[in-house]
Design a protein that fits this description.
Number of strands: 8
Shape: elongated
Structural class: alpha/beta
CATH superfamily of the largest domain: Spore Coat Polysaccharide Biosynthesis Protein SpsA, Chain A
Number of helices: 10
CATH architecture of the largest domain: Alpha-Beta Complex
Number of domains: 2
CATH class of the largest domain: Alpha Beta
Strand content: 5-15%
Order of helices and strands: EHEHEHEHEHEHHEHHHE
Strand order of the largest sheet: 7-5-6-4-1-2-3-8
Distance between the termini: 23 Å
Helix content: 40-55%
Protein backbone atom coordinates (compact mmCIF):
# COMPACT_ATOMS: atom_id res chain seq x y z
CA UNK A 1 0.00 0.00 0.00
CA UNK A 2 1.27 3.45 -0.84
CA UNK A 3 2.52 5.15 2.34
CA UNK A 4 0.75 8.40 1.41
CA UNK A 5 -2.63 6.63 1.30
CA UNK A 6 -2.26 4.33 4.31
CA UNK A 7 -5.35 4.75 6.51
CA UNK A 8 -4.92 5.53 10.18
CA UNK A 9 -6.68 5.06 13.50
CA UNK A 10 -6.58 7.81 16.13
CA UNK A 11 -7.03 6.45 19.67
CA UNK A 12 -7.91 8.75 22.57
CA UNK A 13 -8.50 7.63 26.17
CA UNK A 14 -11.13 9.84 27.80
CA UNK A 15 -11.70 10.40 31.50
CA UNK A 16 -13.99 13.24 32.55
CA UNK A 17 -13.21 15.55 29.62
CA UNK A 18 -16.77 16.58 28.74
CA UNK A 19 -15.94 20.24 28.08
CA UNK A 20 -12.95 19.40 25.85
CA UNK A 21 -14.52 16.83 23.53
CA UNK A 22 -16.35 19.08 21.07
CA UNK A 23 -13.43 21.47 20.43
CA UNK A 24 -11.02 18.54 20.40
CA UNK A 25 -12.96 16.68 17.73
CA UNK A 26 -13.27 19.81 15.60
CA UNK A 27 -9.50 20.28 15.72
CA UNK A 28 -8.93 16.60 14.91
CA UNK A 29 -11.11 16.84 11.82
CA UNK A 30 -9.35 20.03 10.72
CA UNK A 31 -5.98 18.26 11.04
CA UNK A 32 -6.95 14.94 9.45
CA UNK A 33 -9.15 16.01 6.53
CA UNK A 34 -6.37 17.74 4.52
CA UNK A 35 -4.32 14.52 4.63
CA UNK A 36 -6.70 12.98 2.08
CA UNK A 37 -6.57 9.50 3.55
CA UNK A 38 -9.11 7.25 5.23
CA UNK A 39 -9.18 7.50 9.01
CA UNK A 40 -11.17 6.63 12.11
CA UNK A 41 -11.24 8.26 15.54
CA UNK A 42 -11.69 5.89 18.47
CA UNK A 43 -12.63 7.43 21.81
CA UNK A 44 -12.28 5.10 24.80
CA UNK A 45 -14.36 6.26 27.76
CA UNK A 46 -12.38 5.04 30.76
CA UNK A 47 -15.18 5.23 33.33
CA UNK A 48 -16.08 8.92 33.02
CA UNK A 49 -18.66 10.28 35.47
CA UNK A 50 -19.17 13.81 34.09
CA UNK A 51 -21.25 13.27 30.97
CA UNK A 52 -18.34 12.55 28.62
CA UNK A 53 -20.07 9.44 27.24
CA UNK A 54 -23.18 11.40 26.27
CA UNK A 55 -21.00 14.04 24.58
CA UNK A 56 -19.17 11.31 22.68
CA UNK A 57 -22.41 9.72 21.49
CA UNK A 58 -23.48 13.08 20.05
CA UNK A 59 -20.19 13.35 18.17
CA UNK A 60 -20.50 9.79 16.87
CA UNK A 61 -24.07 10.41 15.71
CA UNK A 62 -22.96 13.08 13.24
CA UNK A 63 -19.54 11.71 12.23
CA UNK A 64 -19.45 8.17 10.80
CA UNK A 65 -15.67 7.98 11.28
CA UNK A 66 -16.04 8.13 15.06
CA UNK A 67 -16.08 4.82 16.95
CA UNK A 68 -16.70 4.58 20.68
CA UNK A 69 -15.64 2.10 23.35
CA UNK A 70 -16.98 2.44 26.89
CA UNK A 71 -15.24 0.57 29.70
CA UNK A 72 -17.19 -0.69 32.69
CA UNK A 73 -15.16 1.41 35.13
CA UNK A 74 -11.94 3.39 35.32
CA UNK A 75 -9.17 0.91 34.51
CA UNK A 76 -6.42 3.43 33.77
CA UNK A 77 -4.79 4.95 30.72
CA UNK A 78 -2.84 1.87 29.68
CA UNK A 79 -5.85 -0.53 29.58
CA UNK A 80 -7.86 2.20 27.83
CA UNK A 81 -5.19 2.40 25.13
CA UNK A 82 -5.15 -1.39 24.85
CA UNK A 83 -8.93 -1.35 24.34
CA UNK A 84 -8.60 1.31 21.65
CA UNK A 85 -5.87 -0.63 19.85
CA UNK A 86 -7.94 -3.83 19.99
CA UNK A 87 -10.99 -2.15 18.46
CA UNK A 88 -9.07 -0.21 15.79
CA UNK A 89 -8.78 -1.33 12.16
CA UNK A 90 -6.04 0.53 10.32
CA UNK A 91 -2.27 -0.01 9.87
CA UNK A 92 -1.15 3.29 11.45
CA UNK A 93 -2.09 4.07 15.04
CA UNK A 94 -2.03 7.59 16.50
CA UNK A 95 -2.47 8.27 20.22
CA UNK A 96 -3.01 11.56 22.01
CA UNK A 97 -4.63 12.92 25.16
CA UNK A 98 -8.18 14.27 25.16
CA UNK A 99 -7.37 17.33 27.28
CA UNK A 100 -6.36 19.59 24.33
CA UNK A 101 -2.78 19.88 25.59
CA UNK A 102 -1.57 17.79 22.65
CA UNK A 103 -2.03 19.59 19.33
CA UNK A 104 -3.79 17.57 16.58
CA UNK A 105 -2.04 19.77 14.00
CA UNK A 106 1.16 17.84 14.77
CA UNK A 107 -0.30 14.53 13.59
CA UNK A 108 0.54 15.01 9.86
CA UNK A 109 4.17 15.85 10.74
CA UNK A 110 4.49 12.74 12.92
CA UNK A 111 3.05 10.51 10.20
CA UNK A 112 5.35 12.05 7.60
CA UNK A 113 8.30 11.29 9.89
CA UNK A 114 7.10 7.71 10.26
CA UNK A 115 7.45 7.34 6.48
CA UNK A 116 9.10 4.09 5.51
CA UNK A 117 11.97 4.37 7.99
CA UNK A 118 10.45 4.13 11.48
CA UNK A 119 7.98 2.04 13.45
CA UNK A 120 7.38 4.53 16.27
CA UNK A 121 7.52 8.33 16.28
CA UNK A 122 7.25 9.81 19.77
CA UNK A 123 6.29 13.41 20.47
CA UNK A 124 8.73 15.56 22.42
CA UNK A 125 7.09 18.37 24.39
CA UNK A 126 10.27 20.43 24.51
CA UNK A 127 8.44 23.52 25.79
CA UNK A 128 5.85 22.15 28.19
CA UNK A 129 3.12 24.32 29.67
CA UNK A 130 2.82 22.55 33.03
CA UNK A 131 3.62 23.43 36.67
CA UNK A 132 7.34 22.98 37.34
CA UNK A 133 7.27 21.34 40.78
CA UNK A 134 4.39 18.90 40.40
CA UNK A 135 4.74 18.01 36.71
CA UNK A 136 8.00 19.10 35.07
CA UNK A 137 10.49 18.10 37.77
CA UNK A 138 9.10 14.57 38.28
CA UNK A 139 8.87 14.18 34.50
CA UNK A 140 12.52 15.18 33.96
CA UNK A 141 13.66 12.74 36.64
CA UNK A 142 11.52 9.91 35.23
CA UNK A 143 12.69 10.53 31.66
CA UNK A 144 16.34 10.52 32.77
CA UNK A 145 15.91 7.21 34.63
CA UNK A 146 14.03 5.58 31.74
CA UNK A 147 16.75 6.62 29.28
CA UNK A 148 19.49 5.17 31.51
CA UNK A 149 17.67 1.93 32.27
CA UNK A 150 16.29 1.24 28.78
CA UNK A 151 19.04 2.64 26.57
CA UNK A 152 16.40 4.34 24.37
CA UNK A 153 17.50 7.98 23.90
CA UNK A 154 14.13 9.76 23.91
CA UNK A 155 13.58 13.02 25.78
CA UNK A 156 9.88 12.69 26.60
CA UNK A 157 8.51 9.20 27.24
CA UNK A 158 5.36 10.57 28.87
CA UNK A 159 4.04 12.41 25.83
CA UNK A 160 0.85 10.70 24.67
CA UNK A 161 1.13 12.08 21.15
CA UNK A 162 2.76 9.19 19.29
CA UNK A 163 2.43 7.30 16.02
CA UNK A 164 2.91 3.53 15.70
CA UNK A 165 2.80 0.87 13.06
CA UNK A 166 0.21 -1.75 13.96
CA UNK A 167 2.59 -4.68 13.51
CA UNK A 168 4.79 -3.32 16.31
CA UNK A 169 1.87 -2.77 18.72
CA UNK A 170 0.63 -6.31 18.09
CA UNK A 171 3.91 -7.68 19.46
CA UNK A 172 3.60 -5.81 22.78
CA UNK A 173 1.68 -6.45 26.01
CA UNK A 174 0.12 -3.52 27.85
CA UNK A 175 -0.59 -3.43 31.60
CA UNK A 176 0.14 -1.27 34.65
CA UNK A 177 1.39 2.17 33.52
CA UNK A 178 3.28 0.66 30.60
CA UNK A 179 1.88 3.00 27.93
CA UNK A 180 4.73 5.47 28.57
CA UNK A 181 7.21 2.65 27.92
CA UNK A 182 5.76 1.64 24.55
CA UNK A 183 8.76 3.09 22.62
CA UNK A 184 11.08 1.07 24.89
CA UNK A 185 9.11 -2.14 24.41
CA UNK A 186 9.00 -1.50 20.65
CA UNK A 187 12.77 -0.97 20.60
CA UNK A 188 13.30 -4.24 22.46
CA UNK A 189 11.38 -6.21 19.80
CA UNK A 190 13.42 -4.60 17.01
CA UNK A 191 11.28 -1.56 16.27
CA UNK A 192 12.84 1.60 14.83
CA UNK A 193 12.08 4.46 17.21
CA UNK A 194 12.58 8.20 16.80
CA UNK A 195 11.08 11.44 18.17
CA UNK A 196 9.84 14.77 16.88
CA UNK A 197 9.24 18.06 18.66
CA UNK A 198 5.54 18.82 19.11
CA UNK A 199 3.54 21.70 20.52
CA UNK A 200 2.12 21.65 24.02
CA UNK A 201 -0.69 23.81 25.37
CA UNK A 202 -1.77 24.64 28.91
CA UNK A 203 -4.94 22.98 30.15
CA UNK A 204 -7.87 25.40 29.95
CA UNK A 205 -10.79 23.08 30.79
CA UNK A 206 -11.23 20.18 33.17
CA UNK A 207 -8.92 18.87 35.89
CA UNK A 208 -5.55 17.17 35.38
CA UNK A 209 -5.44 13.46 36.21
CA UNK A 210 -1.69 13.54 36.85
CA UNK A 211 0.10 14.23 40.11
CA UNK A 212 3.05 13.31 42.28
CA UNK A 213 1.36 10.00 43.17
CA UNK A 214 1.97 8.78 39.64
CA UNK A 215 5.72 9.28 40.02
CA UNK A 216 6.15 6.32 42.35
CA UNK A 217 4.05 4.16 40.00
CA UNK A 218 6.38 5.07 37.16
CA UNK A 219 9.42 4.13 39.24
CA UNK A 220 7.91 0.75 40.15
CA UNK A 221 6.98 0.08 36.53
CA UNK A 222 10.53 1.07 35.54
CA UNK A 223 11.91 -1.63 37.84
CA UNK A 224 9.42 -4.08 36.33
CA UNK A 225 10.46 -2.97 32.85
CA UNK A 226 14.13 -3.62 33.60
CA UNK A 227 13.33 -7.05 34.98
CA UNK A 228 11.18 -7.88 31.94
CA UNK A 229 13.87 -6.69 29.55
CA UNK A 230 16.69 -8.67 31.12
CA UNK A 231 15.02 -11.70 32.70
CA UNK A 232 11.56 -12.16 31.18
CA UNK A 233 12.24 -15.52 29.59
CA UNK A 234 14.76 -16.76 32.19
CA UNK A 235 13.88 -15.39 35.67
CA UNK A 236 16.10 -18.03 37.27
CA UNK A 237 19.12 -16.04 36.09
CA UNK A 238 18.45 -13.42 38.75
CA UNK A 239 16.91 -15.59 41.48
CA UNK A 240 19.39 -18.39 40.89
CA UNK A 241 22.32 -15.99 40.80
CA UNK A 242 21.26 -14.39 44.08
CA UNK A 243 20.69 -17.83 45.61
CA UNK A 244 24.15 -19.07 44.61
CA UNK A 245 25.74 -15.90 45.99
CA UNK A 246 23.93 -16.40 49.29
CA UNK A 247 25.04 -20.03 49.44
CA UNK A 248 28.66 -18.99 48.82
CA UNK A 249 28.45 -16.48 51.67
CA UNK A 250 26.88 -19.19 53.80
CA UNK A 251 29.83 -21.52 53.13
CA UNK A 252 32.27 -18.72 53.96
CA UNK A 253 30.46 -18.15 57.23
CA UNK A 254 30.56 -21.91 57.86
CA UNK A 255 34.34 -21.89 57.35
CA UNK A 256 34.72 -19.10 59.91
CA UNK A 257 32.51 -20.93 62.42
CA UNK A 258 34.38 -24.22 61.86
CA UNK A 259 37.72 -22.47 62.30
CA UNK A 260 36.58 -20.97 65.62
CA UNK A 261 35.22 -24.31 66.86
CA UNK A 262 37.90 -26.76 65.70
CA UNK A 263 41.03 -24.60 65.68
CA UNK A 264 40.47 -21.91 68.29
CA UNK A 265 38.28 -24.20 70.46
CA UNK A 266 35.70 -21.47 71.00
CA UNK A 267 32.22 -22.89 71.36
CA UNK A 268 30.28 -19.74 72.25
CA UNK A 269 27.50 -18.52 69.97
CA UNK A 270 28.48 -15.60 67.70
CA UNK A 271 26.70 -13.46 65.11
CA UNK A 272 28.54 -15.45 62.46
CA UNK A 273 26.44 -18.51 63.26
CA UNK A 274 23.28 -16.46 62.74
CA UNK A 275 24.61 -15.07 59.43
CA UNK A 276 25.54 -18.58 58.28
CA UNK A 277 21.98 -19.80 58.85
CA UNK A 278 20.45 -16.72 57.16
CA UNK A 279 22.69 -17.04 54.09
CA UNK A 280 21.95 -20.76 53.69
CA UNK A 281 18.18 -20.29 54.04
CA UNK A 282 18.15 -17.28 51.71
CA UNK A 283 20.16 -19.18 49.12
CA UNK A 284 17.95 -22.25 49.17
CA UNK A 285 14.71 -20.25 49.08
CA UNK A 286 15.99 -18.06 46.22
CA UNK A 287 16.85 -21.13 44.16
CA UNK A 288 13.40 -22.59 44.74
CA UNK A 289 11.75 -19.25 43.85
CA UNK A 290 13.78 -19.17 40.65
CA UNK A 291 12.66 -22.66 39.71
CA UNK A 292 9.02 -21.80 40.45
CA UNK A 293 9.33 -18.61 38.38
CA UNK A 294 10.63 -20.68 35.47
CA UNK A 295 7.58 -22.95 35.72
CA UNK A 296 5.21 -19.95 35.89
CA UNK A 297 6.85 -18.29 32.88
CA UNK A 298 6.57 -21.46 30.83
CA UNK A 299 2.91 -21.76 31.78
CA UNK A 300 2.39 -18.09 30.94
CA UNK A 301 3.52 -18.60 27.36
CA UNK A 302 1.05 -21.46 26.94
CA UNK A 303 -2.07 -19.75 28.29
CA UNK A 304 -3.99 -16.56 27.60
CA UNK A 305 -3.53 -13.64 29.96
CA UNK A 306 -6.36 -12.16 31.99
CA UNK A 307 -7.69 -9.09 30.15
CA UNK A 308 -6.66 -5.69 31.52
CA UNK A 309 -10.07 -4.13 30.84
CA UNK A 310 -13.76 -4.99 30.35
CA UNK A 311 -16.01 -3.25 27.84
CA UNK A 312 -19.52 -2.13 28.81
CA UNK A 313 -20.71 -1.05 25.35
CA UNK A 314 -19.49 0.13 21.97
CA UNK A 315 -20.76 2.37 19.21
CA UNK A 316 -19.83 1.71 15.59
CA UNK A 317 -17.18 -0.92 16.32
CA UNK A 318 -17.03 -4.68 15.94
CA UNK A 319 -15.65 -6.92 18.69
CA UNK A 320 -11.87 -7.51 18.34
CA UNK A 321 -10.75 -10.82 16.91
Amino acid sequence: MNGDATPLSVVLPVLNEQDNLEPLHARLVDALEPMAREYEVIYVDDGSTDGSWEALRKIAARDRRVRLVRLRRNFGQTPALAAGFAHSRYPILVTLDADLQNDPDDIPRLIERLGDSYDVVSGWRRHRKDPWLTRLLPSHIANFLIRKVSGVPLHDFGCMLKVYRREIIQDLSLYGEMHRFLPVLAHWVGGRVTELEVAHHPRTRGVSKYGLLRTYKVLLDLITLKFIGDFQSRPNYIFGGFGLLSLMLGFLALDVVAYRVFVLRRLEATPMVFLMVIFFLTGVFSLFIGFLAEIVIRGFYDTRRKPAYYVRETVGVDPPD
